[in-house]
Amino acid sequence: MKVGGDLAGQLGYQVQLVHPMAHEAARAALEHLDITPARATALLLIRANPGCSQSALGGALNVNRSSAMKIVDLLEGRGLIRRAPSADPRAHALELTSKGEQFAADVDVALEENERRFFGVLSAAERKSLLEMLQRLHQRAP
Amino acid sequence: MKVGGDLAGQLGYQVQLVHPMAHEAARAALEHLDITPARATALLLIRANPGCSQSALGGALNVNRSSAMKIVDLLEGRGLIRRAPSADPRAHALELTSKGEQFAADVDVALEENERRFFGVLSAAERKSLLEMLQRLHQRAP
DNA sequence: TATTGTTATACTCTATAACTATA
DNA sequence: TATAGTTATAGAGTATAACAATA
């Protein structure tokens, strides 16, 4: 299949192509831990923000409260996080269990190895440049 | 929400962040045409590959035959493409109708404007560099 | 046997809306 | 009144499996 000249030169289309490949690579890299990239991301976000609420987590994951709850349910069901009491009794303070800390360390290793493998076709300078550009793209004001 | 140092520095995570933003931008840019980015992509791929089969289209879209058929059903139902007879009587030869040609031109305009808006935070040289890197990432052998 | 299109079915992810309990 | 969490329900997108027609 050819790609029309218009499409092939568009960054939006290239992002559209690269994303599922990167997602599949991450999925495969995490398969032995039986966790999806989205849930692994949630775990690492909770580790970086101990005591955060489910709503805040949902905001960072770009999902609503209802969807965030399902992710939290799953991670809690596996004993990786706990819903600790919060200063605001309406909310939960999410935090990793010791099992979750160990698991998150395993996730780190798997993702770092995947990072090297998937983006290895780029030089170190290119990876740095790409990282900077992607950060700029999503950090700008909407 | 903070992002753990491990996560923030990973290209995979940055792609994971930028993709939904780019998708949302494309969705909004195409909203007045009442078509989703995936279906618009299918239309442009058929235009670039007149006479292609549904299976070939599905391959380019990374979906299976069943899902490709639903997309083709929708585009045909809107009168944008037709299922023409193919040399292989098992297959259909997909092609744009004249209405589809006009519509695809509108899609071109919308996507080009979106491209300028969304990636406008990058300089022309950066956009060129980013395009080249993304192409290299998905063109490599699996 | 393998492939194209088709159909029916199921699964995953996410969203919406309504409810409760707090603030 | 506004917010956090919860629950039930619905939708979109995709996958699987089986089938008919044809290679």
From TrEMBL, chains A, B:
It comes from Novosphingobium decolorationis. It comes from the Bacteria. This is MarR family transcriptional regulator. PROSITE patterns: HTH_MARR_2. InterPro entries: HTH_MarR-typ, MarR/SlyA-like, WH-like_DNA-bd_sf, WH_DNA-bd_sf. Residues 1-139 form the HTH marR-type domain. SMART domains: HTH_MARR.
